[in-house]
Fold A-adding tRNA nucleotidyltransferase.
Amino acid sequence: MTDHPAASPSLDVLRRRAVGLWAALPADITRLAESFAAAGHELALVGGPVRDAFLGRSSADLDFATSAHPDQIEALLRGWTRSTWDMGREFGTIGGRRGDVVVEITTYRADEYDGATRKPVVAFGDSLEGDLARRDFTVNAMAVRLPSLEFVDPYGGLEDLAGGLLRTPIDPHVSFGDDPLRMMRAARFASQLRFDIEPATFAAMAAMSERIAIVSAERVRDELTKLLLGGDVRAGLAALVDSGLAERVLPELPALRLEVDEHHHHKDVYDHTLTVVEQAIDLETGPDGPVPGPDLILRLAALLHDIGKPPTRRLEPGGGVSFHHHEIVGAKMTARRLKELRFDKDTVKAVQHLVSLHLRFHGYADARWSDSAVRRYVVDAGDQLERLHRLTRADVTTRNRRKADRLSFAYDDLEHRIAELREQEEVDAIRPDLDGTRIMEILGLAPGRAVGEAYRHMLELRMEHGPLDPERAEAELKAWWAARQSS
């Protein structure tokens, strides 16, 4: 259960916000509602748009519920616009567009679930109140009847909204049994809305966490992504871990709760990770900066950067603890987990790369690198360099002020040296001074393995010495070739 303080505007303030936004609904929506009423059907704005109006946010997506059945919805929409589409007639949803106004209208539902899958046995309902009962949380179970603007709140959603509370409209065991993904949504809303999860609702999450197994990896991924892009990511992640959901969808995270030895030879890796995530978020930039927030790749890398520690933990003589090569092990674990969650290949590759490099900077503060080492750092980071800067800085969570300052100053120095090298040479796109074609011309070679070896040798020289003039580059190549031939 989350324990961050929730904002609690008064009910009167919430009502004033909402009424203003509802009154400002496009005239086209009023005309559509009037056509439904004239045909003897109810139409109500439902879900997120109603909640967001109370929070003072306008919503581009307008979702409606109605007593009309799909064929009737379609006929009425065609009288409103020629642009309609069938979004799932069997589920009762028809969409339409009139100018910039896009609507989705769904017949009241009264579904039942078989308990084995998330797919409901679709049944149309006969009342708005019954439809709202099947929503995930009370704050999403409010509606506004149109065109009268009558507010409908049978489950106390407005009071929960004012109190910053997430609660299911019906018994949470029934609600989560019907659709286990709602448990992931609770953690997501804890991050997005900064709301607390009501104790009975959280207890049901903990009791039913194993039910998440019937949810597809893609759905879990989508909810995790939204959680990570929210405003209170620590609260959302804590809800996943404390409820037991993380054990089923992201077991590497609760595994970070390593037992801290009595002499505190290593820090709490789980708490450290949550702090690194927060600090990485603080280092994201505005839209014109190099890492515009919210940045999913940076946040995933911060979350997963130390997951290689539990399997590499070793007790050393004298009572110390080591995690040798945890970045290498962690990078492999990261790729495996993200693939299982069906993240796209580019995201998997970028996050894995950052995890593998997050320790590279260690040691710079003790022994200033050569220009060659700086070049390698830039080349190895590639297009993830700006994210690596932020991940490395975020990874400093020591309470020792002198140590933290020393690491910060050292990284400032590294970034300054990267900037200096960029002024002198194209350090972001280092290539050998001789390309493959020129190597073949000089050595009289046809394409083959030897050309690749020569190319790698020239790249090593470029890394070590910086740009070489053409004469020296050719001389170095011939000397290497002669030595190779003689051996």
User: Anything to note?
Assistant: The CA atoms of residues 112 and 121 lie 5 Å apart. The chain has 23 helices and 13 strands. The longest strand covers residues 101-107. The chain has a mean pLDDT of 88.
